[in-house]
Amino acid sequence: MRKIAVDERLLNVEIVLENRKTAVARMTNGKIILKAPLHADSQQLMNWLAGKQKWIQKQLDREELHKINDDEIWILGTKRSVRIIHSNDTVSYVTSEGSSLVVTVKGNQNSSLVIEKFLRYEVETVLNRILKQCYASTGLQPNELRIKKMKRSWGRCSSTRIITLNANLIHCSPEFIHYVCIHELMHLKVMNHSSKFWELVEKYEPDYKKIRKSGSLLPM
Ligand SMILES: [Zn+2]
Fold this sequence. Notes:
Layout: E1 2-6, E2 9-18, E3 24-28, E4 31-37, H1 42-50, H2 53-65, E5 72-75, E6 78-87, E7 93-97, E8 100-106, H3 111-138, E9 144-148, E10 155-157, E11 162-166, H4 174-186, H5 195-204, H6 208-215
Parallel strand pairs: 2-4, 6-8, 9-11
Antiparallel strand pairs: 1-2, 3-4, 5-6, 7-8, 10-11
The protein binds zinc ion.
Residues 183, 187, 193 line the site of zinc ion.
């Protein structure tokens, strides 16, 4: 594993050589994954990465703001403290203790992975519950629902009536999640953001203006 220095931090860099034309970098949990063409030279790749300090800093800030910070996490718009316990149990699990989340991790398994898995389960449960209400109130339903992490939008609706919702919605308030669900469902009727579209949104979420404002403050 190579390392790169950014300010005071040394970050791990994993280089993955694969059949591709250009190099691309992404960051997860403070580690940079650099995917590059098969013939690429590692030192040149590291030099290329070193020229991207601004981008790296931006990713770090994003992760900082974000959730998978081991001591606190935003769930449904509420900040929860996180306690991690390493145990000899055969499984890892997450429980609630007052306002804290207790993450029991088996052996030396990575706690971030346990939290990720927990959040994935939670977001599916919450979205399915809220959507069920929205389907009932609007009489609209997509052909398919997808839930995945997205960087630039909370939700998307395709012309083939597939709605994709951002898994990061788990950090947002239930009101905001409801608004996003209504927003995407209304795209099944009106694909653009015309005044007709917003009228429909308002019909099912009268507070949408206020909610949109509060949502934009949340880290994506
Ligand atoms: Zn939209």
